[in-house]
Amino acid sequence: MLAIVCPGQGSQTPGFLAPWLELPAAAARVAALSEVAGVDLSAHGTTSDAETIKDTAVAQPLIVAAGLITAHALFSAAGLPPVEDSALRGLPLVLAGHSVGEITAASLAGALSEHDAMIFVRERANSMAAAAALTPTGMSAVVGGDPAEVLAAIESAGLTPANMNSTGQTVAAGTLEQLQVLKDNPPAKARVLPLQVAGAFHTQHMAPAATALQVLRPGLSLRDPDPVLLSNFDGRSVTTGDAVIESLIAQVSRPVRWDLCMGTLVSMGVTALIELSPAGTLAGLAKRAMPGVVAVAVKSPEDLESAKELLVAALAEREEGNA
After folding, report:
1. How far is Cα 187 from Cα 160, in angstroms, rounded to an integer?
2. CA 16: distance to chain centroid?
3. Catalytic residue among 48, 202, 247, 253, which?
4. What residue segments make up the domains of the chain, in order of their start?
5. 272-275 and 2-6 strand pairing
6. Stronger pLDDT, 158 or 9, i.e. the higher one
7. What are the backbone angles phi and psi of residue 7, rounded to the nearest 5°?
8. H/E element holding 139?
């Protein structure tokens, strides 16, 4: 079985979108997504510096748009219809996204249209940026160390374990003062690395953003996801459109359990994984936490051929099942 996963905030780097804009129709598609998002995604993905694209209001729509552009290119290379035509329905694969990447995954699963996905991420980004402005907050990755000792150190500093990415990587979130306490008192055999994000995402500091997104909910057109879509909350599949939007809204202020998502992928028998652009983080985690799984990080169009081979193999698996 194949998994297609979509990265979250912090995965973006200056200029990463540039090679994708050289593909046929990509520039026009990015322009259309930019209009909905209210952000010049082309400029931010090509010429904006690291500090600019760190801004939550820029980073989140940029990452979702990049994933959608990557998916279009991949499906086209594999001879599949466009994303908006529900290209993946019925395929033996599973979709998942880390944090804001769950919006990308939900759109690919058909639960949200591209238009609604961009509206949702626009409001998510703006409301989270507003919530982050209320109190100076941030996030730091804790790499290594004993898991129990890591959690104890995070709790001792008054922080929240906002992202449980794997047994060797937990992201702590809270005020800058609390993060400094953790940095000054790291767990044994662990490193504390500040992340390029502008707030304490996936904590109660983001509660105002979740409230704002509830207001947006009635205007969205929802469908039941197909293929399987996993939730960041507990790693389990979400089977209805209502459950998808509940997960997307709630995850703004509750921890991301990517470790549980990877556990579900393993239990489902996933043998190959494609990470859409801006790729690298999730494929790296998979290589460490999902032994034997072939992982392809689609960082640029040069990686499309390797990803296409995995997708074509999934198509062949479906045909064999229907024979």
Report:
1. 15
2. 16
3. 202
4. 2-132+203-322, 133-194
5. parallel
6. 158
7. -75, 165
8. strand 137-144
The one-letter amino acid code at 186 reads P
Go through the chain and tell me how many residues it has.
323
Identify the band that residue 41 occupies on the pLDDT scale cut at 50, 70 and 90.
very high
Is the alpha carbon torsion for 200, 69, 33, 247 positive or negative? negative
Question: Model-level pTM greater than 0.85?
Answer: yes
The verdict on whether 98 is a catalytic residue reads no
Number of C-beta neighbours around residue 47 at 10 A: 13
Which of 271, 298, 270, 301 lies closest to 282 in space, CA to CA?
Answer: 298
The answer to whether residue 11 is catalytic is no
| CATH of the domain spanning 133-194 | 3.30.70.250
CB proximity list for 149: less than 8 A, separation 6 or greater: 187, 188, 190
Residue 130 is inside which H or E element, if any?
helix 114-134
Average pLDDT over residues 116-126: 97
> What are the C-alpha distances in Å from 40 to residues 36, 67, 197, 241, 254?
10, 16, 20, 29, 29
| SS3 label, residue 14 | coil
Q: Where residue 105 falls among pLDDT bands split at 50, 70, 90?
A: very high
Task: List the catalytic residue out of 11, 48, 99, 127.
Answer: 99
Q: What's the CATH number for 2-132+203-322?
A: 3.40.366.10
Residue 254 is which amino acid?
R
Spatial separation of the C-alpha atoms in residues 44 and 85, rounded to whole Å: 28
| Residue owning tokens 């160390």 | 145
DSSP state of 255: -
Q: How far apart are CA 147 and CA 126, in angstroms?
A: 34
Helix (H, G, I), strand (E, B) or coil at 163: strand
Q: Write down the residue that tokens 């904006």 correspond to.
A: 48
